[in-house]
Amino acid sequence: MTAPISSFTPGVLAHSDAARVGFAPRCARFSLRARGDLAPLEAALGLSLPTRIGQRVTAGERQLLCLGPDEWVLHAPERDGAAITAACAGVYADHPHSLVDISGREVSFVIDGPRGAELLTLGCARDLDSIAVGEGRRTLFDGATVILWRDGDTSFRLDCWNSFATHLFHLLDTGVRELAAESL
Amino acid sequence: MLLIHCPYCNETLPEVEFAYASEAHIARPAKPSDVSDEDWAEFLFMRSNVKGPLYERWRHIHGCGRFFNAVRDTVTDKFLTTYKAGDPRPDLSSLTEGLK
Amino acid sequence: MSQYRVSGRGRVDTSRAVTFTFDGKSYRGVQGDTVASALLANGVHLMGRSFKYHRPRGAIAAGSEEPNALIGTRRGAGRFEPNTRATVQEIWDGLETSSQNKFPSLKFDVGAVNDAAYMLFSAGFYYKTFMWPRSFWDKVYEPFIRAAAGLGVSPTEEDPDHYASRNLHCDVLIVGAGPTGLAAARAAAVEGLRVVLVDENAEAGGTLLSEPQARIDGKPAWDWLAAELEALKALGVKVMTRTTAIAYYHQNLIGLVEKLTDHLPKLPADTPRERLWRVRAKQVVLAQGALEKPLVFHGNDRPGVMLAGSAQTFLNRYGVLVGKRPVILTSHDAAWYAAFDLQDAGAQVQAIVDTRADVDALLLNEARARGIAVKLSHTATATSGRLRVSSLRINPVAGGTVGSGQEIRCDAVLMSGGWTPSLHLFSHTKGSLTWDDDRTTFLPNNTPEDCVIAGASRGLWGIEAALADGAEKGRAVVEALGKTGAQVAYAVEADRPGTGVSHKELPTDLSAGKAKAFVDFQNDVTAKDLRLAVREGMRSIEHVKRYTTNGMATDQGKMSNINGLNIASDALGKKQPQVGLTTFRPPYTPTSFGAFAGYHRGEHFEVTRKTDIDSWAEAKNAVFEPVGQWRRARYFPKPGEDMDAAVRRECAATRASVGIFDASTLGKIEVVGPDAVEFMNRMYTNPWTKLAPGRCRYGLLLGDDGYIRDDGVIGRMSEDRFHVTTTTGGAARVLNMMEDYLQTEWPDLNVWLTSTTEQWSTVALNGPDAAKLLAPFVEGVELTEETFPHMSCVECTVAGMPARLFRVSFTGEIGFEVNVPAHLGRKLWETLWDAGQQYGITAYGTETMHVLRAEKGYIIVGQDTDGTVTPYDCGMGWAVGKKKPDFVGMRGLARPDLQAKNRKQLVGLLTEDGSKLEEGAQIVFDPKQAIPMTMVGHVTSSYDIGTTDQPIALALVAGGHEKMGETVYIPMPDRTIAAKITSTVFVDPDNTRLKI
Amino acid sequence: MTRFNAFNLLKNAMSGHKNWTEQWPDSQPKSEYDVVIVGAGGHGLGAAYYLAKEHGITNIAVIDKGWLGGGNTGRNTTIIRSNYLYDESQRLFDHSVDLWQGLSQELNYNVMYSNRGCLMLAHTVHDVQSFKRHVHANRLNGVDNRWLTPEECKEYCPPINIAKDARYPVMGGALQERAGTARHDAVAWGYARGAAARGVDIIQNCAVTAIRRNAGGSVAGVETEKGFIKAKKVAVSASGHNSMVMATAGVRLPLESMPLQALVSEPVKPIFPCVVMSNAVHAYCSQSDKGELVIGSGTDQYVSYSQRGGLPLIEHTIAAISEVFPIFNRMRMLRKWGGITDNTPDRSPIIGKTPVQNLYVNCGWGTGGFKATPGSAHVFAYTIAKDEPHPINAPFTLERFRTGRLIDEAAAAAVAH
């Protein structure tokens, strides 16, 4: 598959009775880094900043996941991008932090179907049961750093950098067919 | 493949998420220009390479991204403990049987 | 039905015939047969030839431990494997198999002359000869040895199958689905634990499959087994058959390989041939059972000589009589039961020969009841028969002396030397073993892993003991996981536990030198060889093993290790533990490469990273090159152009009008925070404090050893925000290095790093028309010398896209790098491409980029530097901040050798004859010297396809900076080239072309 | 010592091989030696052999904590070559290759040195530049190494895949024809037999627990499980244990010991005629005389003495083999094992004197020690005997880490093995 990732359109890319892989619509993505008093940032962003790694908060269409002791990833509708940048810029002087726009850096696959969780075991060495529904983690999938958002028992979102997407999709696509071919 | 406890994530995870970062507690001299060639070579290259409990560094590079310290028995490869960067070097005798 | 098939016996489906071929001849077996059971059912025992002596061999075992019956298996084009165990490969209609290591045929093999000369081919014989004349080793001796060795032939075609892998996490993994494993599985499953039960065989059951006579909890063994498997599945146990636990890694990671298609007549779609499972289990139960030991005596390798337990398996599992007139030779009770089963199935057992004087009266009665002759206190001293055993010579042993022999006619010899617990996976854990004198075997002791070992694999014989221990160990595991397990008891009738004694080679009346008593069948290692090794000073089992190759065959010592140890320790006059057991090494059974390679084959061997613009280049027939994980367009050939022509055109066009280049792969790091500038001052050699927002600067990164690690242009987007670029290959390394210093050495700094490599697609425009082309698309800044001078950067809009615009040049021409969000890269590229047509815009690749930068003397880290080069070496002292108190590499640079005179320094070279130098060519001052020459440097970059009127080169030359204008020499194989040392800048030294 | 030759083999065959004598006695330590060598691998036994043969020093003990040849000597993939980049390395390894040529005759023990050639494949433009630099440097040093086109690579070693569309296409290769392989155990055994015949004591299963020094600081001897052994000189070449042993003498080394794994396939008839190294892909392969494909893996990332390795590394190694040699995908792995490699920062060894008088060290061979066995042993013996380095090992000092005069084969060429 040599089509550029930018030519992917949201929707289902591969599916079988066992599992389904979709391409998520584009959204605004930010990497947020901060220490100390987080209240001003929380006010600026309109959501609280969870401090346990893997914890997630949702406020309206904004979703935020704690990735490290001073690191969060924020997903929001594309139209919110400018506002978020401005809001954080507003508090920077008194509460220095790092907000970096990574909207263009990553894409997300949506994985679900009855064996969606198993599909991920093709490339992920960690025990998926350790990611509670409603949480997320940064981890490794088939050699690439990814962020896994667990949205349900068998439904996940997988964020990866653009240039890994086709490689990872190939494995997911193979797995979708492989799982379907298994006599259960 | 080892299982490693990340003191920041507070989870025990497969080695593939981590990158080894060599011996721990080898501080870079505050004023490098003041140290002798011998001391600089010591800092750059000399390692205890212990056969037994080794103070070492790992980075949870595909997870939280943090560098942290560990004590691991290089004969059995069992971790005795892991702790955050900057925490004091734990006393060996105080370390109980490795983390599970 | 085939003549040796017994109706009403076995678990095979005799109503379903299956046809396969062996050495071109067609045979009929039945559904459920292995190649071995099917051939035996047809009366075929001769299945292979041995490694060294090419002796005729048949199956000695019925399972994966088989050392002799190795065959080639084929399924049409591309699907051939050598050395497949006939005792494991299940048959299917159309399977093609062939024997190995023979010429011209299995029945008549000229290689067997080795057998006649076997006295010469003693252990380690090749260490003692083949040395004269010296030249003969490569030409004559070695080819002979290599051709003689090697068993089967390699595949010669690419493998059309695909392979898979998966990760699995469970509470309890149980290896071996015999009675022990089944009982352990139930104990864990009833507590609601995640249990995985694996077995290498086609069906679960282990010894139960060979012992239908037993009754468990009142049910016939096979009924109990069927019901139990159903129950376990109902409890959620994942039961995996045809699945071998190949290796035990750190912290309870066990590798499993599941065979999915080798037994199927038709290959199902989307189904891998094999799947590697990486299982991480909280607790592991090893229930691998035990392996029967051969007896070591002269002629114990003849086709038809087989393990008694295996004969029993062939009968009870496959319904095959391995012989109609078998003789039993044993030192253990187990073989007596084999005799009874075969007799009851219609064979005439010629005799039961037991080396022991006293045998359980019950056994004697059973034998008597069946009218089977019994010989106690006997040894075996020979067999006869060319391609199949036809008689066994036995002798009475009294008071250690061997009496006169007697021949027993037979068509099979079923032997048992007792049983060896399977400790393979246990010893992968680096677990310790203890020697058990009664059983003359090693037993498991301690292991560092969370693992228990149960049943026959710790020396408990019989089904009842196995079930009891399995239940007990299962409960132990349950309790280790913090639950309370229940006591379970199993009632077993018609069980067959047994006892026996263990032997070194059996006593004989033959002269020791003559006896061919095999220990390692496949490698043709005899007891005599082992004793010779000891005689020659090999005192450890490791030495004996390596000297004789005992235990190094494809069964990895499953048949030979313990017999070898008993003989070696006897020869040494030491107890076995003092001689030691060779470590069992993974995998448990030979495992296909494909299973390890898994999904990572062909284009998915490793990720190929592509930019958003890559697809445009592909459409334009660009030629690509791998750079790190990325593939980059190297050049864009027009029809009929080779690389030189294309690059020459691309270079010329860029200098003449404008060239467009995809620079997206450059590493990018966003450095943000109040201490950003301080961090930059500490990391890079350059001073950053005075760099104004909106300006950029070339930055040089060293290691603390003082040598150049990376470089790139760095823009200060605002007071607290830097846009750092790195080399394509260095991106990840540099970010990791920065994080290391930041987190470990300077945690006090208030600054954060974020990789933005893939946030941006970067389009570079270079050439006199670059500004003219770009200007109309830019909103927010005017592209004039005054408003946006060279080395400026700004956030603006380009063609309606949010952009970070840099005015930089890696070519010496007016240059811009436009960064837009990655997914807009191709859109921007095409916009500029279309608009650029009026200027004859030309797309160029990495090769042209390399040429143009070399003409300006810009270095490429990794090409013009090699990890031993300092900034001063490449004449970039200007990039080193002299007033800074410290930066990474500053102290390293001060070390004596980095300050030394006459270091290799980067200079330009122009050849006197106008010829092009070869990159990597070595440089000397004195061309007349003899080899070995004193080399003073080498050519790092060299091009004759650029825009200069003569070929140019960059080179590292000792003391080069002091030698401007001097001549150096480059000795090539055919001639020596003279070149003049020049500046590294060949084009526009005063940078006039950089001005708009 | 019975001479090994076809005649004696025949003679002994006739007598049922009952008259062969032991190749080396299992000695007990004496109270004092002129030289104690710690580590009975190829390097240590070889040093003893050359000390006895060329320097007339025979009152030597070679002491090992286990069985002789039980360390990396018996655990490597037996690749032998000398086409290194730097002059210093080329001289050292080529000296070794010279000695390999006649080693079987020298030792009267067939070590099966096989000049089957070593082909290093280039998969990137950078590889091509780097390997050509090797080829030119080797040529001017008189070390054979020549450039092959992809087609020539295929011709030299047919299993290689040279498809243009491969993930890592073969862009050519550097071939050293004098390079090859040898039978690793035989090297240790041959040196042991030769040294023992000259009076050297080989003491097995006797761990050295410490190096003892005199009041003046110079070496006094070694403490062992079997008591103190006085020695005028102590030489350490105990790969995988050097850091600990030297630390007892107060000498710190720039070493990190990493696990290295290797594996063999099931034996097949000759199919693979040479040694192939593919550094970009991390595939190292040759075929043993028994017919097994002998495959080298990379080192695990962490310090360890466990001689265990990880599964992911094996997966990658095999994938690399299938990438470069696709026809082997249905072959089977027979056996996999681990060793311990001592790695220096510049991936070049340390052979020479130490800050402690009469204490010598030979270490830091990383993944490449076997090929150097005869050469390293030879110059190490010289250094021990003369208390000064042989010109060949003079550059390989401990001192270089202070001055910065590294011999950085790793940085220069990213070449492992």
TrEMBL record, chain A:
Source organism superkingdom: Bacteria
Gene3D superfamilies: Heterotetrameric sarcosine oxidase, Probable tRNA modification gtpase trme, domain 1
Protein name: Sarcosine oxidase subunit gamma family protein
Organism, scientific name: Pseudodonghicola flavimaris
UniProtKB/TrEMBL annotation, chain B:
InterPro entries, alphabetized: SoxD (IPR006279), SoxD_sf (IPR038561)
Superkingdom of the organism of origin: Bacteria
Pfam families for the chain: SoxD
Name used for this protein in its record: Sarcosine oxidase subunit delta
Species of provenance: Pseudodonghicola flavimaris
From TrEMBL, chain C:
Residue span, SoxA A3 domain: 515-598
Pfam family, any one: GCV_T
The UniProt record lists the keyword Oxidoreductase: yes
Signal peptide: none
Domain of life: Bacteria
Domain GCVT N-terminal: 615-884
Keywords linked to the UniProt accession: Oxidoreductase
Domain Aminomethyltransferase C-terminal: 904-988
SUPFAM superfamilies: Aminomethyltransferase beta-barrel domain, FAD/NAD(P)-binding domain, Folate-binding domain
Ranges of residues in domain FAD/NAD(P)-binding: 171-436
Classification via InterPro entries: 2Fe-2S-bd_N, BFD-like_2Fe2S-bd_dom_sf, FAD/NAD-bd_sf, FAD/NAD-binding_dom, GcvT/YgfZ/DmdA, GcvT/YgfZ_C, GcvT_C, GCVT_N
Protein family (similarity comment): Belongs to the GcvT family.
Protein name: Sarcosine oxidase subunit alpha
Organism: Pseudodonghicola flavimaris
TrEMBL record, chain D:
EC number(s) per entry: 1.5.3.24
Annotated keywords: Cytoplasm, FAD, Flavoprotein, FMN, Nucleotide-binding, Oxidoreductase
EC category: oxidoreductase
Domain Rhodanese: 35-79
Listed InterPro entries: FAD-dep_OxRdtase, FAD/NAD-bd_sf, Rhodanese-like_dom, SoxB
Superkingdom of the organism of origin: Bacteria
Reactions performed catalytically: sarcosine + O2 + H2O = formaldehyde + glycine + H2O2; sarcosine + (6S)-5,6,7,8-tetrahydrofolate + O2 = (6R)-5,10-methylene-5,6,7,8-tetrahydrofolate + glycine + H2O2
Keyword Cytoplasm carried by entry: yes
Keyword Translocase found: no
Family: Belongs to the SoxB family.
Cofactor(s) of this protein: FAD; FMN
Species in which this protein is naturally found: Pseudodonghicola flavimaris
Protein name as it appears in the record: Sarcosine oxidase subunit beta
Intracellular or extracellular location(s): Cytoplasm
Any coiled-coil regions, as ranges: none
